[in-house]
Design goal:
The chain has 82 residues and is α/β, with parallel strands linked by helices. It has 3 helices and 3 strands.
Length: 82
């Protein structure tokens, strides 16, 4: 069986995390969750997701700031961000 693709889902709305996360799991993805921008950066360092679904309006760092930090880092700039 192939390894599941690891997706980091970042949103500060619990209902969105639950709904979208469940749908991704049903489709066969491994889902990681983060509720703010700083937590998202930490999860990327610890868990190495293969794709990120990133909300724009977040506490701590907004989605644009998270995206910019990831794209500036050579270790993470290859990760697709939606």
């Amino acid at each position: 069986m192939p390894e599941k693709i690891r997706v980091l889902l970042v949103d500060d709305e619990p209902n969105i995390l639950k709904m979208v996360g469940k749908r991704l799991e049903v489709e066969g993805f491994e889902v990681l969750l983060a509720t703010d921008g700083q937590q998202a950066l930490t999860r990327v360092e610890l868990d190495a997701p293969q794709c990120i679904i990133l909300d724009v309006m977040l506490p701590q760092l907004n989605g644009y700031e998270v995206c910019a930090k990831l794209k500036q880092n050579p270790r993470h700039q290859h990760i697709p961000i939606i």
